[in-house]
Amino acid sequence: ASVEVVQADVVDMSFFPPAPTLFDGVELPFIDNRFSLALMLHMFHYLEEPVEFVKEVGRVANGRVIVLQTTYSGKLGLILLRMQDFILGQLAFHIAAMCGAIKTKKCSMIPKRLYGKGDLESTFTQAGYCVVIRKEERKLVCLLNKGLYVLEKAG
Q1: Of 41, 42, 80, 97, which one is least surrounded by beta carbons within 10 A?
Q2: Among the listed residues 70, 31, 53, the one whose alpha carbon sits nearest the alpha carbon of residue 128
Q3: In the predicted model, what is the mean pLDDT of residues 16-29?
Q4: What digits encode the pLDDT tens for the residues 32-41?
Q5: Is the pLDDT of residue 111 over 80?
Q6: CB–CB of 138/145 below 8 Å?
Q7: 111 contacts 46 by C-beta, under 8 angstroms
Q8: Which DSSP string corresponds to 33-60?
Q9: Max alpha carbon distance in the chain (Å)?
Q10: CA 148 – CA 24 distance, rounded (Å)
Q11: C-alpha torsion sign, points 16, 17, 18, 22
């Protein structure tokens, strides 16, 4: 059995081929049920409409959806996650652009919202999914949670 990996992103920030399939951040350019599995890596905080996007991912994936996302606990956790997101997102993007490591100059790494653990799981539920596997690793004195969520369509 072979495995095909297809990346999709709103901007090409790849250092090595293959480049991702570009899309508008709303509608994925794939046919219904194109994939048996979808993997969403640390991208929820960039979504304008997270519930609608999870539904869109469900349109192109006929199986489970795996989500890796960092969430916060409490106000201090929110501050730490904002700092982490700035350093690993916007700052890293601009340094890479200045060095010529990436082609685009428009930063897409601006968060729309950061998530507490309950907020993220509520988003999954609103999109028609249930969490069937949850693994969490707490960081920085339990203020940040690196979460792995395996989702299946509810019903």
Answers
A1: 41
A2: 53
A3: 89
A4: 999 999 999 9
A5: yes
A6: yes
A7: yes
A8: T-BS-EEEES-GGG-SSHHHHHHHHHHH
A9: 49
A10: 25
A11: positive
